[in-house]
């Protein structure tokens, strides 16, 4: 009897674990951690203190981002079935009921908003948060099924979390510093997305989904992606000019990382016969996270 009970309990734990993993994948939790980190990046630019406010901000933005991602998974599930890189997602594969994703989105949105309301003077950050959700789920997600240039409003979505953090930290509504910081995120978003489409170009070319890899020669798209990456590098250097950091030598590694990204991207996209799109995609991710971390560290040291 005890063995049967133990075996049944083990099966239940495995089932709960499997469902939990599917819910986490539907919410795209690792991506949402990065979104929340970008909000902290903005907060520390305005208010270089890691305290309870930063913890509340991180948790609230993470929950809101997970809610938006869950709704996005629901919106995209039909198209996800057609792409090799997304067909194994829980909703696309039928491993998770659609209504579960919708309920998850509602609960995560509600929890994120309630946490955001705990911040001092939460009105402006809340307005930015709702704007991001509207842009992401109401404009970008439907638009990407209609035009290859939906990536541009998508870049705006990606640029707003640092602004949310900046306002939560008591920063003024409009300064060169935060707008340059937002431009770093926006300029990163576009080539980041294009690298995904280039890596899975055969999928996109075989389907009716709008994508520049279907309408533009690959070498031209590589060149345009490189131009955006060079603009990203320029934006990072512009932020170094307007943002004092401590220790005073910290801009050196940030500049070196930026120039290294430019050189590697130039070789990969123009000089190599077999571009490593997946590797460059990973480098872009690591670069952004490291640059935000270094600026945050330099802000705390002031």
From TrEMBL:
InterPro entries: Protohaem_IX_farnesylTrfase, UbiA_prenyltransferase, UbiA_sf. It comes from the Bacteria. It catalyses: heme b + (2E,6E)-farnesyl diphosphate + H2O = Fe(II)-heme o + diphosphate. Keywords: Cell membrane, Heme biosynthesis, Membrane, Transferase, Transmembrane, Transmembrane helix. One of its GO terms (cellular component) is membrane. This is heme o synthase. GO terms for biological process: heme A biosynthetic process. The keyword Membrane applies. GO terms for molecular function: protoheme IX farnesyltransferase activity. It comes from Desulfofustis glycolicus DSM 9705. Signal peptide: none annotated.
